[in-house]
Give the backbone structure.
Amino acid sequence: MLKHRGFPSRMPSSDFQFTIRRANPKGATPLVRRERYRDRKAVDRRADTIFMQCLWEHFGPEPFERGNLDAGRLSWLFGREVLPAEEPFDPESYEALLVIDEAAARASFPEAFEE
């Protein structure tokens, strides 16, 4: 499992995890598209925004390996702002390649792209 050096491990001053420490011996948790309902808490939406900002700053528009990125946090963005970068895509692989859909990410999280 690739460890993304320099990527924040969590949202500052919270328990919202962005990375995992070690690979699961049973295999990676599958990435699934989670629905983001309008009544989600503000802190949950803020965690998504900060995570997207970190992804963009770390990887930009280039494809990146899933590696040690948290599956739960990625799943909130998967299928919308973060897309598979390869076919066939294995949602249970730490080596799976992902890419940010910049247009969708900017529309959903404009504050993550402010300079």
